[in-house]
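Incident review: delayed structure delivery

Summary: a single-chain prediction request sat in the queue longer than the usual turnaround. Root cause was a stuck worker, restarted by the on-call engineer. No data loss occurred. The affected request and its eventual output are reproduced below so the record is complete for anyone auditing the incident later.

Affected input:
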Amino acid sequence: MTPAIRLLAIDIDGTLLDPQFQVSPANLAALTRARLAGVEIVLVTGRRHQFALPIAQSLGFDLWLISSNGAVTRSLRGELFHRDLLPAATARELIAQMEPFRANLVLTFDREGKGALALERTDELTSHIQRWVENNLQYIEFVVPIERALDTDPIQAMFCGTIARMQVAEERLRTAHLADRITVLKTRYDARDLVIVDVLNQGCSKGHALERWAGHRGLMREQVMAIGDNYNDIEMLEFAGVPVIMGNARQDLKQNGWRVTLPNDQSGVAAAVEEVLFG
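Output delivered after worker restart:
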């Protein structure tokens, strides 16, 4: 059969991965079946490319990755299609405006090895994203003050903390004189009392990157299906002709008229793919 959907965009955390950070056999089987039916799979994630790579490789077939919430589009082999960096000058001004949140800040750069991530310290971060810090230690460089790391344009600035603290950070970002130069995207995990606030270049998002990739492939939005679970997926779901929200998403994200699938602990990606592509 030839499905109407030609491009399937899938978020990773909270969507493709189950609560144990694994791709379920059902999800893998559904994606393999979709690919054999001629549907292109693209992973669209807030993770940086290198951190998302093992998940993509575990699927067992070739694909492209849209990483860092749309800032970088690169193949498994490392071919670069598009990169949208945050100007270093804007990043410096951002750090100055967000002075009280230095301990919550990570700068991400498009490079491999030490220095891909720049921090001043980890004490505030470790209490909220300890697993992430441990898994990325080989990429972390401690720079004091962190502005010294800005010898090149970063991909993004990331603020991590409790829901309450990041609400204050978001409000400070709203009042900063940077609105016409940045995009602010949020990922919220209620069970972990964690919010990640990503600051990227203006106009950069998963949705913009997916639209750019679909255009490159010569596809209309009606031929694109997207599956996500969090606030940083909103632009991607708004672009897709067939948007699907996970059952484990917050209730307010289920009120947008999007199709709702099963939660990630019940292979919701597989359920959506089987229903939409194969009836």
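Verification: Residues 227 and 244 are 5 Å apart (CA to CA).
Action items: add queue-age alerting; document worker restart procedure.
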